[in-house]
Amino acid sequence: MPEFDCDVLIVGGGPTGVTLALIAARHGASVIVCEREAEIYPLPRAAHVDHEVMRIFQSVGAADAIAATSRTTMHYDFLTASGEILLRFEGSDRVGPGGWPSANMIHQPSVERVLRGELERTPQAELRSEWRFTALHQEAGGVSATFETPNGQRTLRSRWLVGADGTRSPVRAAAGIELDDLQFDEPWLVIDTIVHDFDRLPPVNLQICDPARPTTCVLMGEGRHRWEFMMLPGETAEQIMDDAFVAALLKPWNVDGAVSLERKAVYRFNARVAKDWRKGQVLLAGDAAHQTPPFAGQGMCAGIRDAANLGWKLGMIARGAADDALLDSYQVEREPHVRATIALAVMMGQTVCITDPVAAEARNQQMLAARAAGQSPDGAVEFPPLATGCMLGGTAGAGSYFPQFMAAEGERIDDALGEQAWLIGTITPGIAAPAGVSLVSLDAAPLAPWRKAAAQWLTERGAEAVLVRPDRYVFGTGDAASLLSAWAQR
Known about the structure:
Layout (H helix, E strand, L loop, with lengths): L5 E6 L3 H12 L4 E5 L12 E3 H9 L3 H5 L8 E5 L4 E5 L13 E3 L2 H13 L4 E5 L2 E8 L2 E8 L2 E12 L6 H5 L4 E17 L9 E5 L5 E5 L4 E7 L6 H4 L2 H8 L8 E16 L3 E2 L2 E3 L5 E2 L7 H20 L9 H25 L4 H16 L40 H5 L3 E5 L11 E5 L9 H10 L4 E4 L5 E5 L1 H10 L1
Parallel strand pairs: 1-2, 1-10, 2-7, 4-12, 10-17, 19-20
Antiparallel strand pairs: 3-6, 4-5, 8-9, 9-10, 11-14, 11-15, 12-13, 13-14, 15-18, 16-17, 19-21, 21-22
Keywords: Oxidoreductase
GO molecular function, one term: FAD binding
InterPro entries: FAD-bd, FAD/NAD-bd_sf, PheA/TfdB_FAD_monoxygenase
């Protein structure tokens, strides 16, 4: 194949594509991002990212600026039409294992501006706007992709092509990848508003499980607030988006004068997963690979997690530190996690979207009784560890998420130890680390503010050392020499 224009060609310049570009470039790959639009889409879409995604943004230098435009809230409530609590997810404003608040309510255009600003400062990556993908052709060791651009048709050649191009994904279609439909399809009206008086709005996120009209009410960043109203049988998009209809929907919230309308749109909330996330040198990420209903707030989060999982692997392969087979771990690691979060979102959606009054009353009585008996699944949302893939199976903690320890002064361990893989623990003198792995002895000065927390983590697992991957999932535990040997073999 002729000389490559880049190692990684990403189709789609949204949050997933740009984050992937930033991570892959930081780990050694050259990257081009091609986006069909001229500018960032100016209206809100995603409304939430969690602590782990904020940690990923931290890894590319974007977290502080994103946090400055975000809001937090204490909890996420599912209520009956009369206001009784059916389900409450606590701790949304508390710092999660990723070292940031568990729930961060965002304004997506603001997030994208920050990420693109970081991309402009990254020498190994570039963004090409108004480049519309039209076709691809795979050859041994690479991909040719064709684009329509302001200057006519252009072709780029890369070692890998990643489709981060949304739910309709022309890349997925061109690669012949099918979707597994998980049978959730509900139309909802989404109303985004600019807030003028926060005191007149709910301070927490709400799901109103009212059979007359299931409704979502959530905070957003940058002075916004969102309502979502389920469409009822017989209603049309034209009817429900009429200004008078929207005003009638908002009237019970008593927000006239407190907010002004910014956007109204009808969305179909779906649950789908691509059957293949890799086909030769073509990969999928974000909405191109999976789509989830919004009830768990994990749509954008899942795409950013894809970027974190895939980016360091592409970088290592590009710089010759790993074999192309490392990419086989991408789908086996990410798909079970995605399916678990989609299942949670579908469960939430099925709880909310009951419109039969008799069934809704039965739901209410069952959930209220469970909560009264202390059997309700209240608390913070937890996600499963990696079950297989690039890890040392059979060792304590392998596949789990390694926490970002915080010092008393608020310093985060990631900022001190850097973006590479870490081997933390008891390290015998003379052990040498391969490129891309930082050796961090428990008695090393850089670890001092977090030494107690790291030592406790190891003690709880009966381990001398832990090898933490660049995406901050645990490769494995054991003695340092064995961990480095196993890492090299993987």
